[in-house]
Amino acid sequence: MTTIGKIHSIESCGTTDGPGIRFVIFTQGCPLRCLYCHNPDCRNLTDGKQVSVDELIAEIQKYTSYIRFSGGGVTISGGEPLMQPQFVKEICQRCQEIDLHTALDTSGFVDLDTVKDVLNFVDLVLLDIKSFDPEIYRKLTSVSLEPTLKLARYLSEIHKPTWVRFVLVPNLSDAHHNVTELAHFVSSLSNVEKIEVLPFHKMGEYKWEQLGYDYQLKDTPPPSPELVQKTIDIFKSYGLKVN
Ligand code: SF4
Question: Which of 9, 53, 121, 160 fits a disulfide with 155 by CB distance 3.0 to 4.6 angstroms?
Fold first, then answer.
């Protein structure tokens, strides 16, 4: 019997969470409370759908030919996948056994010793660093930044291919010192292949309303093209590849 976990949903041909066409598994449960979360219904591990690793692998196998043809793979996203480390480890291990590339999208808010073993079966980490200023980070997510930086340093030590993701939120994460200090930190790491600058959007706002949660970014606009370009230019000025 394989491990059973909780998922929110799956997407059989994702194109934004790693290279090529991806089979994306969105796991249930997240300890963060990001103000802009577009999947607020992912929060509670008590919700979601129960599924076994065997069932997921059987589903993935229906798509392996075009996933491989596109240079894609399987991405575990969330929620926070590393809330269910054994489940995620087994999915990634089974995917690698059938020669499928594995990517893990994580906030990094994890106990590093618990998740080191999972990382052995992950080919690419998509690490969300939502802010470099700890106060802004806490305001945005309700949790501490330090575990994410600890994971980032560890991934660098083990030379694990990583893409850093940064959501650009006007009047929050866009502060000049925040972007330059993040750029400086990321440029000191050995393993980061690129940074993705993701413009804030409000596509999840209706879900907050449906769930009766208070959406605090109602009046925050998406970043202007000029602000996005300025942010990209700062990262590039530190020698980083962007998007
Ligand atoms: S880490 Fe992702 S799933 Fe969790 S609250 Fe933040 S945006 Fe939502």
Answer: 160
Q: What is the spatial distance between Cα 137 and Cα 91, in angstroms, rounded to a whole number?
A: 30
Place of tokens 């930190």: 185
Rounded Cα distance, 9 and 151, in Å: 26
Among protein residues, the one with the nearest Cα to ligand 1's atom 7 is: 37
Cβ-proximal residues to 15 (8 Å cutoff; 6+ apart), any chain = 21, 22
3 state SS of 102: strand
To test the pocket of ligand 1, the residue of 8, 16, 34 to mutate (highest count of ligand atoms within 8 Å of its CB) is 34
**By the 8 A CB rule, do 74 and 88 touch?**
no
Confidence (pLDDT) at 149: 98
- For residue 71, CA distances in Å to 76, 195, 211 come to 17, 20, 38
Residue-wise pLDDT for 146-164, tens only, equals: 999 999 999 999 999 999 9
Identify the pLDDT of residue 243. Answer: 87
Length of the chain: 243
Give CA–CA dist 34/198, Å, rounded.
14
Give residue-wise pLDDT tens across range 196-217. 999 999 988 999 999 999 999 9
Question: Which CATH entry fits the domain spanning 4-237: 3.20.20.70, 3.40.1280.10, 3.30.830.10, 2.60.40.10?
Answer: 3.20.20.70
Report which protein residue has its CA nearest ligand 1's atom 3. 79
CB 9, CB 47: distance < 8 Å: no
Residue range 171-192, pLDDT digits in tens? 999 999 999 999 999 999 999 9
